[in-house]
Structures are given as structure tokens and as C-alpha cells.
Amino acid sequence: MNRLIDFYFDFISPYSYLAHRKIINLNQRKNFNYKGILLGGLHNLGNITAPAFNERKMKNMKNDCNLIAEKNKIPFKWNEKFPINSLYLMRGFLFIGKDKKDKFFDTCFDAYWKDNIDISKDENVEKILSDCNVDKSLFANSIEDKKIKDELKNLTNLAFKKNVFGAPTFIVNDKLFWGQDRLEYALDEFKS
Predict the structure, then answer these.
(1) Cα–Cα distance measured from residue 122 to residue 70, given in angstroms and rounded to the nearest whole number
(2) What is the pLDDT of residues 18-53, one digit of tens each?
(3) Which end of the chain, N or C, is more open, meaning fewer C-beta atoms within 10 Å of its C-beta?
């Protein structure tokens, strides 16, 4: 039996959001192991300039995301605050208990890429935590915990060592598939 498909993501990645929504639409969530990384940190390790900082790429990326969302009937709105610093939410994803992780994940992604909410603002994070029934004081303390900080760094470094250079990336059977448009290939490999 094949292992789960590792899905490397960051909340700031619109393509990760679109891939996640496609996974849900295909009713395949149970086959994925969601691995949060810090995309900015990954880009720094690989000396990669993110598309968000290239005017031509950015223009194309907005159009591309809208086309993908429309074709796949995914609710999507380009966030006016793109890009944001996702550090605290990515740490939060690691802290959140298994019983609330899916809800937190969906709520963060939907807030940013469906509802156009600035999820880097404290009051919006507090609303997300409230919606997920997560104690905001415990959350604030935990995302500053050295263990959580190190875990996110280690996951990002490990992803880099596995040749992950962007998000989303899927790894199954030691094969890497980069981009939301490679989701079906990753699923084919998983089923083979």
C-alpha cells in the first residue's frame, strides 16, 4: 500500500489554495499529508525570486488563478493584501491539535483566498481562532515557542533538501510533482 501524498503548502500560495480545493472536490483529502512550510524561507534557501515580486509574473499569476478557479468551479478572489507574512499562521498550523487542524486550515485558506481578508491582522486572526474554537492566548504563546519555531524551520529545510522549490508540491513514492496542475499526476502515482 502506498503512503500518503505529502502536500507542501503555505497559506500565502494561491496555487496551494486551488490545489486544496481541487483535492476536496475530488473527495481525496484522506490521501494527503499536509506539510506546512514557509514559502519565503524556501525561496531564500533556493535563491528564488517569488512571482509576487516580478510585475509581469504577478499579472499573469492573477489571471492564471482566476482561470483555474473558474474552470474548476472554485470560489476565489485575489487578495488585495497579497503577499503577506504567513509566519505566525504557518507556526499556528503546526500547533493546532489534530481535531481542529482541518477546520483551521480551511478557515485560513478561505479567509485569504475566498473572502479577501487580511489574515496577517490580529483581529482577523482572532476571528479565525474563535471560529475554530482555539484559545487565542494559548495560540499566541505557542507560536512563539522555540519547539514550534524550530519545527517550521526544519520542515522548510527538509522540503528544500527534497528539492521542493515552490508550493504546492506533492511527493509520493519519492517522486516530486510541482504545481496545482500536477495534482492528477500525483494521484495517479499514488494509485499505481
Answers:
(1) 31
(2) 999 999 999 999 999 999 999 999 999 998 887 777
(3) N
- CA–CA dist 182, 131 (Å, integer): 32
pTM value is: 0.94
Q: 63-101: per-residue pLDDT in tens? A: 999 999 999 999 999 999 999 999 999 999 999 999 999
* pLDDT confidence bin for 188, thresholds 50/70/90: very high
- Cβ burial, residue 73 (10 Å; 0-12/13-18/19+): exposed
Q: Which of 2, 13, 40, 1 is nearest to 169 (CA)?
A: 13
Q: Which residues contact 158 (CB under 8 A, 6 or more apart)?
A: none
Q: Would you call the peptide bond into 75 cis, given omega within 30 degrees of 0 as the criterion? A: no
CA separation for the pair 182, 145 (Å, rounded)? 35
Domain that holds residue 19: 5-191
How would you class 39 by CB atoms within 10 Å of its CB: exposed for 0-12, middle for 13-18, buried for 19 or more? Answer: buried
Give the E-state strand segments of the chain in sequence order.
5-9, 32-36, 169-172, 175-178
Number of domains, the chain: 1
User: Residue 83 maps to which CATH number?
Assistant: 3.40.30.10
At 86, which amino acid appears?
S
Round to whole Å and give the CA distance between 190 and 39: 25
DSSP assignment, residue 27?
A: T
Other Cβ atoms within 10 Å of 179 Cβ, number: 16
